[in-house]
Amino acid sequence: MNRKSMTKLSFLALASMALAACSNGGVVLEEADQIFDGTSIYFVSGSSENVSAKMEINGDITGVACGRTAADSDQYSYRNGVLTLGGKFISSISGTGEKAIIITTSSGKIALNALAVTSVITTAEEFQAINTDAVTLQGTYVLGNDIDLSGIDNFEPLGWYTEESDPNNAYFHGILEGNGHTIKNAKVYYSDNVASNYNVYAENGTYRFTHDGHTNGDNIGLFQVIGSSGIVRNVNFSNIDVRGRTICGVVAGNVMGTIENCYVDSQCSVEMGTHYYDDDCNMGGVAGIVAGSGQINNVISEVTSLQIGAPGATTINGVSIEEAGIYLDWNNDYTSQTGNGWDHGNESDHNPWWKFCAVDKDKAGTKYTDSNGSYTNGVYAFAGKTWGSVSNCVAKKFKITPMSGTTRDVNFSQTHLAANKPTSGDSDLGSLTDNLLLDSEGMKTASNYGESFSYGWNVVDGSVPTLKAAYSFVPSEAAE
Length: 480
Fold this sequence. Notes:
Layout (H helix, E strand, L loop, with lengths): L2 H20 L12 E3 L2 E5 L6 E4 L6 E6 L2 E2 L5 E4 L2 E4 L1 H6 L4 E9 L2 E10 L1 E3 L2 H5 L11 E4 L3 E2 L26 E3 L4 E8 L8 H4 L16 E3 L2 E4 L4 E3 L2 E9 L1 E3 L3 E4 L2 E7 L4 E4 L10 E2 L2 E4 L4 E7 L3 E4 L5 E3 L2 E3 L4 E4 L8 E2 L2 E2 L10 E4 L4 E2 L2 E2 L11 E2 L2 E4 L2 E3 L2 E3 L2 E2 L7 E2 L21 E3 L2 E3 L1 H4 L13 E2 L7 E2 L5 E2 L1 H4 L1
Parallel strand pairs: 1-3, 2-9, 10-11, 11-13, 12-14, 13-17, 14-18, 15-19, 16-20, 17-21, 18-21, 18-22, 20-24, 21-25, 22-26, 23-35, 24-36, 25-37, 25-38, 37-41, 38-42
Antiparallel strand pairs: 1-45, 3-7, 4-5, 4-8, 6-7, 8-9, 27-28, 29-32, 30-31, 33-34, 39-40, 43-44
């Protein structure tokens, strides 16, 4: 065989190898700067950038589609173990949220789990901007890195709520995918001090929040209200300090939607200023209320810093506060009113304002219990009140000493008992399933975490479980 023939055969062999490597007619698309590791990917909706994933594909690719949107043959390639989808195809996929991209090959079908996002959040300003309007509150977001909120003087809770009948209420109905990253160092302050809301109600008083939907201090957390279709998942929360008037939690004041696979660390704290006394207005390390449509799953909380009122003696506007934990509500509308059989204040009081103390709830001279069989105190380790469901969650165990009460363990949560609050419904509601209150050692014991933590978490003895990234990457050079 002459040299010319050998050269021709070598060229044909190389070409054949290239076609096999590409597995779609020889088209080779430029790989994305970041290559996903596996079959879970995300992309910005409408983006024209290529998307790449390192994955095993057997056989030749014969088609790629997302629903009814099919990719042209020049909009996908598979080379050296990396699938690349062209920007033209990516931009043709409409809408945001969960998507399934189906890769059809001569050997069968492979599903890519894709999240089409409104934007990738990388700064504190971008995170706060989710609150811009009702449209952004319905967006789908993924954290591109840890988000440090320390540069924002006072973080405005995401979503806003004034009262149930207000048509301008806007809850978070979107998706926040944390991808294992951390939101940290936020002050979410309704008032300067929970010893009193005098600075809010008094003449020339000041609000810490600027949005009208936040200034009443109800349902306060990093999110004010997670709406029924809202999802917060795979996020770490660290050093988030929440201060509200009533119904408070680190992640959310009110959860009508879903929180799953999240971790809230021991540096977070919650302070609440007022009437847990009406049985619905409580606080917890994660949420103030889990509403009827709300559900929280696979969440770990190490929050033990929860406080009603302000401890220690002090004087506010000339009124002495003698005992620990007293709170004065300076709204004159409550003078001389009563409710649920207990006193809201009367004309003989030494001041005209509604006065609260962090005491066990007393009705007609008798202390009564919550759904756990414990005297109520407004403080719960995980959720203040559960109307919906909380399952497979873990909270740190700690104790509290209510005024006029005895030191006791703080309960995980309470469900709704009609006997305690008939004005909120005549049926007992709420489900608490397979949840645990653990001490420091128990939090680090792997056997305490069930099968539900086998996905999305690193669970090993000797440390509290940590979140895995839902979407991971490999460097380009490692993919070749």
